[in-house]
Amino acid sequence: MKVIDIASWKRKEHFEFFSKMKSPYFGFTTEVECTKAYEKAKENGHSFFAYYLHKSMVAVNSVEELKLRIVGDQVILYDEVHGGSTIGRADGTFGFSFFHYSEDFETFNQGLQKEIKSVQNSTGLGISNDVLPINHIRHTTIPWNSFSALLHPTNFDPKECIPKITFGKFNIRDGKKFLPVSVEAHHGLADGIHLAKYIEEFQRQLDM
């Protein structure tokens, strides 16, 4: 963990400019090809959701700007960020989940599957966002539809700084599978180039 010296930070003006806005989030929606990743997950008996979620977490942790958080009046760079995701239940509701990041898929997946079972056996929203560590990143999946745009709820808090990543149902075109991805971040902490780096690394991970 490292406290950023805002006074000498190259993003000082960017941070101060966007932090004055009631809604400083920005983002975009795109696609990544997931054909190889889907086949590999199925060949090894893994959940495709778990597989691409892990690849996303690896990509997130490769981009320094997505590990920055606003804590009080400080900007802190965390060594790593962990995962959070909505988990659907059989009754049509969902709950929030939290799981630790590991570069090793098997380790990551064990924790994820345990958390999925816990949420599916609970009611309400599950874990409160108020008790989640700030060094996590929010994921959600819309498995019923693909999408080309997305709208998140917001409380218009300029210090809300946890990035949001959303996945949809993959499309099939010319025999290839394409996963829609929406990514948003606090513009005082990250720019378009940083979100593009995440997408680039996410695609590279899916192609491995």
UniProtKB/TrEMBL annotation:
UniProt key word Transferase: yes
Presence of keyword Transferase: yes
SUPFAM superfamilies to which the protein is assigned, alphabetical: CoA-dependent acyltransferases
Active site (record annotation): 187 (proton acceptor)
GO MF annotation, one: chloramphenicol O-acetyltransferase activity
Entry keyword set: Transferase
Entry-linked Pfam families: CAT
InterPro entries documented for this protein: CAT-like_dom_sf, Cmp_AcTrfase
Name used for this protein in its record: Chloramphenicol O-acetyltransferase type A
